[in-house]
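[job 0412] stage=complex_fold ligand=2'-O-acetyl adenosine-5-diphosphoribose status=START
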Amino acid sequence: MMPHVPFTDALVERLARARSVAVLTGAGISAESGIATFRDPGGIWERFRPEELANVRAFLRNPELVQAWYAHRRALVAEAEPNAGHLALAELETLIPDFTLITQNVDDLHRRAGSRNVVELHGNLTRSSCIDCRRPAAEADLRMLASGEPARCPDCGGYLRPDVVWFGEMLPVEALETAHEAARRADVFLSIGTSAVVYPAAEIPRLAREQGAYVAEVNVAPSAIAGDVDEVALGPAGTVLPRLAAAVRARR
Ligand code: OAD
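[job 0412] stage=complex_fold status=DONE, emitting structure tokens
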């Protein structure tokens, strides 16, 4: 697949005519908001070990460490702002009758940018709940951590955990089903800023293509699925997506 800079006219034409569009985003779309990706040089998994932080056994072994790491990530995300790429996707949603934004990101930036129909495959960092009774946690419950104690549920005393999917855990069933349905319906599917190596998210673009969607990837470098898409639009999402949204707006 020959990469295009930034995208083909065919993609604009298809988006302008599309009734149904689905999008899958990954960490790359938030890179320009200053949030590190996972697998790029300097990425999160280069500096931290998933087996020490992002699984339930690690959490039960050292709840304070894991809670502190997520508190740190929440603070980074709270300081960050949605970038032009997030905003362009929120605009595309207003131009297309049936638009589903499927994200692997837990940073909540799509919603803050104004996207409405967001499917969170890996949960959301800004929510926490009790690992035992599942009661949603309030901000005040999480503050216990600041006093040097692990944060616990005020009802049952269980440890509070972020509502994110850890290694070895199932994705939320409803979110995954909604994502699959959107992929099957899509006339056009965009895979944006994801290395497409983490399953089951990475198989969603292929499912869309099998069901007849035109699949385009937007990335600074071709991903693991670049050979299985119709078009690779090369460039930073914060540059490519505003241009794409403007071109679609001009033709719709
Ligand atoms: P990765 O870190 O694996 O991939 C980031 C992708 O973004 C790479 O393909 C980069 O080339 C691309 N990229 C970087 N900057 C970009 C930019 N400005 N514009 C466009 N693309 C850019 O992140 P994900 O694919 O999201 O899971 O990783 C998937 C999952 O792995 C995450 O959801 C997380 C992680 O383990 C869980 O925590 C469950």
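The mean pLDDT is 95.
[job 0412] exit 0
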